[in-house]
Amino acid sequence: MEHVRSFIAIEIPECIREDLSRLRNRWRQPSQNIRWIRAQNIHLTLKFLGDVPVAKVDAIVRKLQALCEETDAFHYNLTRLGVFPNPGKARLLWVGAESFREQLTQLAKKIDQALINLGFSKEKRKFVPHVTLGRAKSPLPRDFVNSFLATPFARDEVEAREIIMMRSDLRPTGAVYTAIKRIALRSL
Fold it and tell me: What is the pLDDT of residues 50-104, one digit of tens each?
């Protein structure tokens, strides 16, 4: 049976991806063991699906379409830098959506709930709306993390008008993302 590695996300507008690329480049250092996310791959994940049987994709899309018909478009902005799992053991660098966190969290919960009947597990971790900038194989130095976290970053609000079911093809040069289906949210 053929599978497709996939996730559901909100696309980040190009102007903000460019700002995030500049931020990323500011922190890029040859001495750091960080794999930085390419600008075209920057997105806000709502739910990672993993390897999905191709035969199940249409059912997932139908569930998402029904959910989006009942979900209004909304605004969000990226306003602060963060790390996972914590500053002392930071291995993932991100920019988070704080001021509109509730709308993003509710959408992620709705998606999670809508897909349970299709065999997807409910997410156990607390949803933190964020855009990943880079990943390290081992914890980053604390002084680097502290400086990163102290960096101001805030961008104007943008409107989330759709969600996207994305395909993720892992390659030696990095992941390549392709939209399987774009699904519009209800217009404001």
Answer: 999 999 999 999 999 999 999 999 999 998 899 999 999 999 999 998 777 888 9
- Give the H/E segment covering residue 11: strand 3-11
**Pairwise CA distance, residues 132 & 181, whole Å:** 22
Helix (H) or strand (E) holding 59: helix 57-69
pTM: 0.92
Q: What separation, in Å, do the N-terminal and C-terminal C-alpha atoms of the chain show?
A: 41
Q: Tell me the chain's radius of gyration from C-alpha atoms.
A: 17
**What domains does the chain contain, in order, with CATH numbers?**
3-184 (3.90.1140.10)
Closest CA to 109 of 46, 60, 45, 182: 46
The token duo for 143 is 């002084």
Strands (E), 23-175: 34-36, 43-53, 74-76, 80-84, 92-96, 130-136, 158-160, 162-169
